[in-house]
Backbone:
């Protein structure tokens, strides 16, 4: 509810300065009307306390309460419009800054003080003005909330329309791709084309269609690797977030994870393994650890392609990265990331 939040924040931020400036200006005219040392002393008191309205919003309410009480008690009936106007200004701006559970008790207490010092004649105005201020505040709040709801509905409709347009565009692209690939191959076969040429063309068609599907679809990497962990012969503790990635990237992660868990089963002698899938910025981070015997990376023969081919190069081909850290006696940790760090 962006507009509602902004409106309430603006009203709350401006209420204090408006109150502070208002009571100072009112008290200046009041001091002139009283025209006595007491009047100017009260004006100085109001000016000092108004600092809280400008600079100390957390204590502005109790300071404003004390200010009105002092003016009411010291001036009494002689204060006339001075006290009453400061009172109503205070009560009105309270409605903009604090909720009713705070303002209602404070307002009742101030009205009781005012009635005790000047009589019940002030009640009509002193009650009516803050009530109208609260009603106006609530009307503005509801109106801004309604505008936010309408904006959100319009945004949802725009998003839905964009999805429909994008789906239509993708369907047209897919139909065009089918026409350029599978349909052309079927036509070649139907007209007695060379079997080897037809087979080669069909293979190229499959590659193009698979690349399109991988580019368009997304897969939850956490769910995919959780399924891989369940198939492992070694017990695997899994901690997986929902991390959507392109289908082709997910396939590279799945194959790399299978290879790593197979190595744990065959070589590590580990009792357990741990697999973690988490978001890393806009990409994914997969960590596979075991508590096995470990090994020295440089001692792995060059003809063994498991880690290099099935893990490191596979992730690199998918636009990611893979780092394996191991040492005798402290297990092995593999960090698979996508996209690769720049």
Residues:
């Amino acid at each position: 509810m962006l507009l509602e939040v902004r409106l309430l924040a603006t009203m709350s931020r401006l209420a204090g300065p408006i109150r502070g400036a208002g009571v100072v200006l009112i008290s200046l005219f009041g001091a002139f009307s009283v025209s006595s040392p007491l009047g100017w002393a009260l004006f100085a008191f109001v000016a000092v306390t108004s600092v809280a309205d400008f600079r100390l919003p957390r204590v502005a309410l109790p300071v404003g309460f004390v200010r009105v009480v002092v003016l009411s008690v010291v001036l009494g009936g002689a204060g006339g419009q001075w006290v009453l106007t400061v009172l109503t200004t205070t009560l009105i701006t309270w409605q903009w800054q604090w909720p009713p559970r705070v303002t209602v008790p404070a307002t009742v207490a101030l009205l009781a003080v005012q009635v005790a010092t000047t009589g019940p004649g002030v009640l009509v105005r002193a009650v009516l003005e803050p009530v109208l201020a609260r009603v106006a505040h609530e009307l503005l709040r509801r109106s801004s909330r309604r505008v936010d709801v309408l904006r959100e509905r319009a945004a949802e409709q725009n998003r839905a329309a964009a999805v429909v347009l994008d789906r239509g565009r993708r369907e047209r692209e897919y139909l065009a791709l089918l026409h350029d690939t599978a349909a052309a191959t079927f036509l070649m076969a139907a007209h007695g084309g060379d079997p080897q040429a037809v087979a080669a063309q069909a293979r190229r068609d499959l590659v193009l269609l698979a690349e399109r599907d991988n580019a368009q679809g997304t897969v939850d990497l956490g769910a995919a690797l959780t399924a891989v962990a369940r198939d492992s012969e070694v017990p695997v503790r899994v901690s997986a977030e929902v991390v959507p990635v392109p289908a082709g990237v997910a396939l590279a992660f799945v194959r790399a994870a299978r290879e790593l868990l197979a190595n744990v089963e065959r070589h590590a002698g580990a009792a357990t393994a741990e697999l973690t899938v988490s978001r890393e910025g806009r990409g994914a981070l997969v960590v596979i650890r075991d508590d096995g015997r470990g090994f020295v990376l440089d001692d792995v023969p060059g003809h063994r392609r498991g880690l290099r081919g099935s893990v490191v190069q596979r992730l690199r081909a998918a636009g990611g990265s893979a780092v394996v850290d191991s040492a005798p006696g402290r297990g092995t940790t593999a960090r698979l990331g996508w996209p690769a760090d720049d």
User: Anything to note?
Assistant: The longest strand covers residues 273-280. The mean pLDDT is 79.
